[in-house]
Amino acid sequence: MSIFEKLESQVRSYSRGWPVVFHRAQGSWLYTEDEKPYLDFFAGAGALNYGHNNPVLKQALLDYISSDGVTHSLDMHTVAKRDFLNALDEVVFGPRDLHYKVTFPGPGGANAVEAALKLARKVTGKEAVINFTNAFHGMTLGALSVTGNSMKRGGAGIPLVHATPMPYASYFGGAYPDFLYFERLLDDSGSGLNEPAAVIVETVQGEGGINAAELDWLRSLDEICKRREILLIVDDVQMGCGRTGPFFSFEDAGIKPDMICLSKSIGGYGLPLALTLIRPDLDVWAPGEHNGTFRGISPAFVTAAEALRTFWTDDSLEKSTRAKGERVGAVLTEIADEHADLGLVAKGRGLARGLEFPDGETADKVCAAAFERGLLMETSGPDGEVAKLLPPLTVTDDEVEHGLGIIKESVAATLR
């Protein structure tokens, strides 16, 4: 471990909670150098929805590399990009009657968010953006401006402006009607709220504490945006690609956002890829107005296309994710009920689940106890008070039960 301490920055985080050296990975498992197995309920923070080294995706990648396929091409036309766009159109857009242009903004989710914010301001001529309490959209300056966490915002070192937070779903526990505050500010010429170009929202706030918006809340937000001609941006970086069940996390609400941000599992294999999907009439970019060196990495196109055709030509994965998610949710609810005196809360949708504790220290201890027992899971929420579960969608039923058993033991050991 000495070389990590010697050379790597103090900014590292996950390695502090999991102080081992991982060597290989397969499916839902990570293995250390001495072959100790860990069941992975972290899944690359949602970048590995199809598990580690999925054999179908791996073979497609190996075939492409061995054929001397183009690796790096900026935004030039390649066979790999064409195949990916065809798969996206045929497997995702067509069956859902969706019509979007595809922007390749760079390798990560923050790139997708930055492109959406930039384009919304260009299209509307307005500067202001509405975000929500406890939101997380990335660590670059524009994405940080619409992020809620004070620690992450503080790292910017400069004022983060042109964004105004509004209460997320259930923020006031049902004490006030949804969007009462938002609409009042929009209607009041004395509110000081600049007319917004866009609203950016996560349907389930992952880093914010696995806060799942009600479907009616999402539909109401969509209606407000349409009625007031405000662009709606859905950040589906962590919750997209099936994490909540359907391919897009907003599908159950029956809405069609103006822009969609995708990254993490869109690459299929854990390779960097990000997309900003935009309504065709919003595609007003000038050539080269938004670019980047790594805006399209061909090996990621290959695994992304293979993932779409392998997992999304029918509803098998969606049904499996919903069923496993219900099982996880039921067990977390049982755990919460067993410790009702401490106010534990089970949260989430699909296979994005969380167990909220009274404070971050308790959640940290539960995750540490799980690590000792061979399970990886992280914390989230404004104070790290939520133990967060993001297993691969391909996790088996037996692995789900094994992981839930560890969680039960870890909670009991921490709270005894």
Automatic annotation (TrEMBL):
One of its GO terms (biological process) is ectoine biosynthetic process. Coiled coil: none annotated. One of its GO terms (molecular function) is diaminobutyrate-pyruvate transaminase activity. It is an enzyme of class 2 (transferase). Gene3D superfamilies: Aspartate Aminotransferase, domain 1, Type I PLP-dependent aspartate aminotransferase-like (Major domain). Pathway: Amine and polyamine biosynthesis; ectoine biosynthesis; L-ectoine from L-aspartate 4-semialdehyde: step 1/3. InterPro entries: Aminotrans_3 (IPR005814), Aminotrans_3_PPA_site (IPR049704), Dat (IPR004637), Ectoine_EctB (IPR012773), PyrdxlP-dep_Trfase (IPR015424), PyrdxlP-dep_Trfase_major (IPR015421), PyrdxlP-dep_Trfase_small (IPR015422). The keyword Transferase applies. Its EC number is 2.6.1.76. Keywords: Aminotransferase, Pyridoxal phosphate, Transferase. CDD domains: OAT_like. Its cofactor is pyridoxal 5'-phosphate. NCBIfam families: dat, ectoine_ectB, PRK09264.1. Belongs to the class-III pyridoxal-phosphate-dependent aminotransferase family. This is Diaminobutyrate--2-oxoglutarate transaminase. It comes from Haloechinothrix aidingensis. The lineage of its organism: Bacteria, Bacillati, Actinomycetota, Actinomycetes, Pseudonocardiales.
